[in-house]
UniProtKB/TrEMBL annotation:
Main location: mitochondrion
Family classification: Belongs to the sideroflexin family.
Subcellular localization, as worded in the UniProt entry: Mitochondrion membrane
GO CC terms: mitochondrial inner membrane
GO biological process, one term: amino acid transport
Gene Ontology MF annotations: monoatomic ion transmembrane transporter activity
Annotated protein name in UniProt: SFXN4 protein
Transmembrane intervals: 34-55, 67-89, 123-144, 156-179
PANTHER family recorded: SIDEROFLEXIN, SIDEROFLEXIN-4
Membrane topology classification: Multi-pass membrane protein
Keyword set, alphabetical order: Amino-acid transport, Membrane, Mitochondrion, Transmembrane, Transmembrane helix, Transport
Entry keyword annotation includes Protein biosynthesis: no
Gene: Sfxn4
Amino acid sequence: FLQFVFHTYTTGFTLLNGNGTAKAEEYSVQQKQVFYSLGAISYAACIGALPLVFMNRYTLKTPLTQLVVKKLLPAPLLGLMSAFTVAVVRSPEFENGIEVMDRNGKVVGLSKKAGEKAVKETALSRGVLFGTTFFLPSVLMYFVERAKVAKTPHALASVRMLMITSVLAGMLPVSLSMFPQCGEIKRADLEPEILSSTEETELFYNRGI
């Protein structure tokens, strides 16, 4: 259930903060994004819960298995699924293209290659954000539990929440600064129809967050 809630929130955030190209505001595209979003949420939530279900189903409850499945595996999987939902929800951007502009802000055309680059960058930054946010506290909590610093379940939960909040606060600016909000793409990497529309060597696009 928590996986479903998390991916519903992040998918909604992705829908609201994608590239604002006018073509992506068409009803048919919006409808497609909603269907993609529902599919991405369901798939990501199922994949995220799969290791725990698999462990319980086949009674794989050795200490090593529990460490891997409950402590180490969920965080990278969450990061991977976060990147996956970004790619799926914003797929119309590289299917239809996004606006690219010159240095003066004049729109030169729609580029699928710029859309692909924008989505890849956002997916990578999102994966790093959530993967690190949940992986690092899991590793630290393993040592906290071994050292018996927090002796009650309530204390352990408080320490875990504090660690997650601290890492998230630290990783958020790192994630946002991995790629500039106003992305750059070389003219030579764009479609032929855009090449013929400008002599600028570099063009710009809104990456989204």
